[in-house]
Design goal:
By secondary structure, this protein is an alpha/beta fold. It folds into two domains: 8-149, NADH:ubiquinone oxidoreductase-like, 20kDa subunit (Rossmann fold, 3-Layer(aba) Sandwich), CATH 3.40.50.700; 160-254, no CATH class. It has twelve helices and four strands, in the order E-H-H-E-E-H-E-H-H-H-H-H-H-H-H-H. It has helices spanning 19-25, 28-37, 67-79, 88-92, 104-111, 137-149, 160-167, 172-176, 192-195, 212-221, 226-233, 241-254, and strands spanning 8-13, 39-43, 55-61, 80-86. The protein has a four-stranded parallel β-sheet with strand order 2-1-3-4. Helix 11 packs antiparallel against helix 12. The longest helix has 14 residues, at 241-254. The termini are far apart. Bound molecules: iron/sulfur cluster (2 copies). One iron/sulfur cluster is lined by residues 160-161, 164, 169, 171-173, 180, 182-183, 191, 194, 200.
Length: 257
């Protein structure tokens, strides 16, 4: 009888800082178990060995920012039975998506000595999801484990506030008046920033039903002006629709008609 083939796992990178791929390598205790359960077919951050597709599970880091990227992601999709995007860049365009609010041509002229060598689309687009900048190790292992067991991954869609409560954090917004995006941000990090007396800046992106309007009212009560609110929503997940709408509303308020 022919030996059963192990599922083929591939990890692909687009425009990104490689932090989410490093989070995979950071699964030190679990990495051998993963490597035993799958054939790692393509993971350039870890190995030069490459096996041809098709792949059973593809993890995709980074956003689509060039015409070549747009073609490449379609080919990867064709080659993959399942595709999971990992991190803020892949799920909502990442920090690169700030260019969606700007004149890309002007940046190209100002920043690069030879702008003709730079190929870039006008926008940076997410692919669709493990959230975070970088992703949570626990969520990554849950997603890979769920795939191997043929079930849906159990990922939270509640807010970071719930994690604060479970962790016993003192609320930085209520106790110290520190602006915090936790009420509208998807859980998964374990409320790390409030645990260190910092407000959440939304690196896991919007939760399932984010009430950004009420949060903006609270931020204004704390004394935050529209330009500050705009900056708060325009970071790693600036292009996520709910955060984008909140920053655009703040931009409209900040700019006199
Ligand atoms: S610190 Fe932020 S995330 Fe934590 S409970 Fe308060 S508002 Fe929510
Ligand atoms: S608290 Fe907010 S900004 Fe900090 S790691 Fe968690 S989701 Fe990201």
């Amino acid at each position: 009888m022919a030996p059963t083939r192990k599922p083929r796992l591939a990890v692909f990178k687009f425009a990104s800082c490689d932090g989410c791929q490093l989070s995979i390598l950071d699964c030190e205790d679990e990495l051998l178990a993963i490597a035993g359960a799958v054939d790692i077919a393509d993971f350039r951050e870890a190995s030069r060995a490459v096996l041809e597709g098709p792949y059973d599970l593809s993890l995709v880091e980074g956003s689509v920012t060039t015409a070549h990227d747009a073609e490449r992601i379609k080919e990867i999709r064709k080659q993959s039975k399942a595709l999971v995007t990992i991190g803020a860049c892949a799920t909502s365009g990442g920090i690169q998506a700030l260019k969606n609010f700007s004149d890309v041509e002007e940046y190209r002229r100002v920043v690069y000595a030879r702008p003709e060598y730079i190929s870039s689309l006008a926008t940076s687009t997410g692919i669709a999801e493990l959230r975070g900048c970088p992703i949570s190790k626990a969520q990554l292992l849950e997603a890979v484990g769920a795939f191997l067991q043929g079930r849906a991954p159990n990922l939270p869609n509640e807010s970071v506030c719930n994690e604060c409560k479970r962790r016993g954090n003192v609320c930085v917004m209520v106790a110290h008046g520190t602006p915090c995006l936790g009420p509208v941000t998807q859980a998964g990090c374990g409320a790390i920033c409030p645990a260190y007396n910092r407000g959440c800046y939304g690196c896991f992106g919007p939760q399932a039903t984010p009430n950004t309007k009420s949060l903006v009212v609270e931020l204004k009560t704390l004394g935050m002006a529209p330009p500050g609110i705009l900056r708060l929503f325009r970071t790693f997940n600036a292009n996520a629709p709910e955060f984008r709408a909140a920053s655009e509303a703040a931009a409209a308020e900040a700019t006199p008609p």
